[in-house]
């Protein structure tokens, strides 16, 4: 296995690195080799994607050269293990070879990269693509000196539920069972707690708006706050499931929705990804749409995704054109979502598992229910049953109609669809009803009940 | 079972999509087929020859399910009959349709049978007598459309089976059979 002298790095199914809490990408470089010139026994990592984050240096294998998304081959060097970044010497010779960047990391005697290791080794990065190593080195220095991982380490030690943000109001209830301590439980309890927390964070919000730099500093805190509240709501809903009524659950879910949409911590930007912008945006989008898609029943309007995605990105907005390009790149990656264009021109994003056949069979069973046989179904009925938007449901119904499975009924009552019984009627004998056919079933439901 | 006049209506007459012209080709073909047969059966039963597209026609609506055919649908079904040769537009604007629930050749055969059955081989009859006389009662000829009758008789005249006499008015028109 390549790169076992480095630390393993997780990737998502679409091939994006899984970032730690608070970790932000700062530069992406394509076609980079990572090798150790001092010890040729260590297998070099050839021509992958180099991702510099505030915490780590990640090397991801080239998705085109590997058959599987080989998550195991992705490697990481924690910036904490970096001891020194070496200045590259400019020479005539260097102008013709691929640019190289060297840095020293601490290692264990067994040649594994580790923080505070007893030995040092030099890692060489070879930039084979059309990239700008000088700006990369600049960002590398910046990230290394920023020492962002130090805050994260102390945070992860105390567990995600215990990040101290506000004062007592926010943290008193996390583990001690709020049902016992709070005089008012349930929705009002949560709301009151929320209120207290808002008051205590109101000050930090005001500070944040002092100037943009301050906002940038506070942004991480805000996202952490949102995440924390979400966690708390989650734990709250399980601990007092008995007491919670439907209304309460509903408002909790709503609250969770708001908080969920707050944050992509490390949005892919043109600045950080450069030439890889659309490709990386595409991967990030694929990861992002999973949750909203699940909630929407496996299919969503492209417009809705655009709104959600931009909202989650906060200030780093993307254009509709970028979104479309990101979606159309999905075909090249092994991602579980796809872009679909209906005949009417409506574009949707759907899970690959959310196949048309499945929707079709659900519509099929829906229109054969006695009520639907009798009065047909509208797009609204179908939307309710399928758990998708009415406009989308109508597209599916029209698709089923064009396959000859449904028939339309346009009347002052509206636009309704019925199961197609025309195929089942004998053209030579209009009065003949084949037993147990669709026509027979329709007669039983529609005429018999009259 | 629902009836309209004396016609027993098929069950699908209560199927709401039957009254909306279907956009999908295969389905529409089947729908048109069923409508054509029903229109012919109804006209034959009611001895109707003319359908006006803009007038109320009992077959084209079903009060039980509150559905009726719109203009496009009526026009599509009648056009299909016209292209089958079982109907003809009587005007250029395609607003009125003559339904030939027997083709002209069939009408000619029916007239010949009627002449033989009543022993009228060498007699003279006015057209009006044929249409409303005692002899024709109970046959399809009774109450027959004037235009259709004239065309059937012309066909027979060309075959030398009879001679048509032009009168001063339509009442005076007559035929001499020579079968």
TrEMBL record, chain A:
Keyword tags: Coiled coil, Cytoplasm, Endosome, Protein transport, Transport
Region (Disordered): 1-23, 152-177
Pfam families xrefs: EAP30, Vps36_ESCRT-II
Gene Ontology CC entries for this record: early endosome; ESCRT II complex; late endosome membrane; plasma membrane
A biological process from GO: seedling development
Coiled coil: none
Intracellular or extracellular location(s): Cytoplasm; Endosome
UniProt cross-references to InterPro entries, sorted A to Z: GLUE_dom (IPR021648), PH-like_dom_sf (IPR011993), Snf8/Vps36 (IPR040608), Vps36 (IPR037855), WH-like_DNA-bd_sf (IPR036388), WH_DNA-bd_sf (IPR036390)
Protein function: Component of the ESCRT-II complex (endosomal sorting complex required for transport II), which is required for multivesicular body (MVB) formation and sorting of endosomal cargo proteins into MVBs.
Assembly: Component of the endosomal sorting complex required for transport II (ESCRT-II).
Family: Belongs to the VPS36 family.
Protein name (record): Vacuolar protein-sorting-associated protein 36
Lineage, opening ranks: Eukaryota, Viridiplantae, Streptophyta, Embryophyta, Tracheophyta
Automatic annotation (TrEMBL), chain B:
GO process terms (BP): macroautophagy; protein transport to vacuole involved in ubiquitin-dependent protein catabolic process via the multivesicular body sorting pathway
Pfam families for the chain: ESCRT-II (PF05871)
GO terms for cellular component: ESCRT II complex
Gene Ontology MF terms: DNA binding; protein homodimerization activity; structural molecule activity
Superkingdom, taxonomy of origin: Eukaryota
Organism: Helianthus annuus (Common sunflower)
Keywords: DNA-binding, Protein transport, Transport
InterPro entries, sorted: ESCRT-II_cplx_Vps25-sub, ESCRT-II_cplx_Vps25-sub_N, WH-like_DNA-bd_sf, WH_DNA-bd_sf
UniProt protein name: ESCRT-II complex subunit VPS25
Family, as annotated: Belongs to the VPS25 family.
